Amino acid sequence: MRLRNVRNASDLIDNNSLWVVPNPETMNGKWADIFDNDHPIHLEIGCGKGKFLMEMAQTNPDVNFIGIEKFDSVIVRALQKLIKKPLDNVRLLRTDAAFLTSIFATGEISCIYLNFSDPWPKPSHFRRRLTSMQYLERYRFVLTPQSHIFVKTDNFPLFAFSMMSSVNSGLIINRISLDLHRDMDIANIETEFEARFSKQGKPIYYIDAQY
Ligand SMILES: C[S@@+](CC[C@H](N)C(=O)[O-])C[C@H]1O[C@@H](n2cnc3c(N)ncnc32)[C@H](O)[C@@H]1O
């Protein structure tokens, strides 16, 4: 998701280092200091414009949330939400998830959300999928034992791939849904993409996997 013509996005990001943490690798092992508490830290990778992150943080004040997003023009939308409604338990990182193991110490993270990750349909690009085994190994490194990874997607090939790579990486599949909005017993906060796809009548696929 790339938004065009967001004027001064990088300036706004640079001027709000309280919310978009600069040089995040310097905080490796010290993220509890940023939040000034030892609450668990949950990550959303590819947080987009931040709707899910903000609503999760408001609903769960005893959890710290970090949103990772690689594009200035997208993360600036999440930043604007945070400036409008400051939440002490939220921070943003403008970076690529490939650097996760430099940014967080082992066991520093308690949960990962992968919401509507880019599907990368070409086989030659499968390694870029955020549920490839390469990424799952990075997640294993930063997560505490028995942590959950939650996946939501509208894309069946990505869903099937994510199931396979999770099993091949030794994760336990706790629960899946082939239509999350039909299975309403699962607590759910909608993301921007989810709202768009469910309006189109598409089913939302869901995985709750655990190390
Ligand atoms: C399809 S959008 C979904 C946004 C949001 N999670 C939602 O559900 O509305 C995927 C987002 O992930 C971001 N992204 C993809 N690969 C990433 C990576 N390796 N590191 C950080 N962000 C990434 C993209 O820039 C994009 O904003």
List keywords for this structure.
single chain; 211 residues; alpha/beta; binds S-adenosylmethionine
Q: Can you offer a commentary on this structure?
A:
This protein has 211 residues and is α/β, with parallel strands linked by helices. It has one domain: 3-Layer(aba) Sandwich (Rossmann fold). The protein contains eight helices and seven strands. Strand 1, helix 3 and strand 2 form a beta-alpha-beta unit. It is globular. The structure holds S-adenosylmethionine. S-adenosylmethionine binds next to strand 2 and helix 8.
Number of strands: 7
How would a textbook summarize the main sheet? 7 strands, mixed
Percent range for β-strand residues: 15-25%
- Known CATH architecture: 3-Layer(aba) Sandwich
Question: Percent of residues in helical segments?
Answer: 25-40%
User: What global shape is seen?
Assistant: globular
In short:
The protein contains eight helices and seven strands; from the N terminus they run H-H-E-H-E-H-E-H-E-H-E-H-E-H-E. The protein is of the alpha/beta class.
Spell out the blueprint of helices and strands.
Blueprint: H1 9-14, H2 31-35, E1 41-45, H3 51-59, E2 64-69, H4 72-84, E3 90-94, H5 100-103, E4 109-115, H6 133-142, E5 143-153, H7 156-168, E6 172-177, H8 192-199, E7 205-210
Parallel strand pairs: 1-2, 1-4, 2-3, 4-5
Antiparallel strand pairs: 5-7, 6-7
Bound molecules: S-adenosylmethionine.
S-adenosylmethionine (SAM) binds at residues 1, 45-48, 68-71, 74, 96-98, 115-118, 191-194.
